[in-house]
């Protein structure tokens, strides 16, 4: 294995030498291959770092927290909702912990007397569920027997995510969010009694808070979601916003990177500049419309519907940026071209290998990636840019002589997913009230004091189709109505004929409401 790698490296170096001598004249930056490509070991746990230094691990440390308080004292951190009065968002600042690899979670107190649980924040699903029995990968669980306020609804539920699934029963109980509200809320809660690949080793959470729309809720969309209950009972605006603060930081065993889930509005101290909004195209996942991708400033030039196959969503519960296969291939080609690392091992791009450099960060070799979104004002667009610090992810503890990195983008057949690695660059506003998602520069998206994300706009959309969503309604609705009507007529005639021929035919409906295809690809550090 080792010798193979070495020969490959030698070969690469030869190639590289030839190549660099040719290219030196026009290539301004020196270029280094990764010194080492290491296979990813997976003996139960992924390689994990020694504890980080405090300054690395706590981007919102003492100092900035104090700064935030100061801002608050001047009244800037109180967001005003004119219709419902003042909501104090200060307690919610820094109420999350975690990292992009294993998710960001929020502390909740459930039941009477309260039992403390850590709940993963997932905008790609819609059930609130907690471990109801001990599990080897969770430190605690919610014991319904010990809660005097728990009421079962005698409703079984099974939820499948892109990765992992669980089975449980639905009930209701009271919940408090200590870093959020003083009051208690009555919510639906699924008690998980059986699960597969859902709770993972090293995850610190023992429940999940699905923040997407009721349409995705199981067993049916009539089950009121946690956030809908919260909006009603806490009388907050129908809006929440998320800041995740793990940018550029190696994922850490202790999961101490911070973040904030602001329920009921937007907290000014968590972002800089202006918030750019794009429309939510359909209220199930947070589905948005992507118009264009640029790698290192170069347009990929794909048909814009390719970016939205079969949907483009914003999901805090997915670790990486997922791209449809065709887009993924184009991106890899563009990155390897722009990065001058065309000889990169295939395994790095597919996520099966890490690339390691010694005492050097490789970020300067990789291009920026820009994602263009249609502005809510549809004649314009804006663009969110992530720097390599957000998608070339440091992984500690592989080898003390090398700094190793994994690629933060992967291929996905059913969606483009703006996952946690991208979200870490932005303060993301889920404005359900106005059916739009906002992006602003996150105050914590910095590595060594340098911003790792950018937002710019407005841009013209003249060169872009009026809709990039595949299968969106045709422009001739009347023709469609006519054709549907004709089809239904045919169907009815056909059914009548059939029923005349087989008077005792029994129609069996095998629709299983529990079979779900909830695509929230729950947070994992699984190397495949
Ligand atoms: C935060 O500040 C307090 C008081 O200034 C100090 O005692 C504490 O050690 C600080 N904590 C960290 C993590 O720096
Ligand atoms: C809860 O109430 C106490 C006392 O009134 C107050 O100091 C605290 O900030 C409140 N917490 C939240 C989350 O509103
Ligand atoms: C990437 O984007 C940042 C922020 O807009 C910019 O400062 C930087 O020059 C860009 N890098 C490249 C290689 O274009
Ligand atoms: C669109 O932009 C125009 C001009 O900037 C503004 O007046 C208008 O309110 C915007 N419309 C929406 C729906 O935001």
From TrEMBL:
Signal peptide, first to last residue: 1-25
Glycosylation sites: 182, 377
Main location: membrane
InterPro entries: Aspartic_peptidase_A1, Aspartic_peptidase_AS, BACE, BACE2, Memapsin-like, PEPTIDASE_A1, Peptidase_aspartic_dom_sf
Places the protein is found: Membrane
GO molecular function: aspartic-type endopeptidase activity
Residues annotated as domain Peptidase A1: 104-440
Source organism superkingdom: Eukaryota
Name of the molecule in the record: Beta-secretase 2
Organism: Vombatus ursinus (Common wombat)
Primary gene name: BACE2
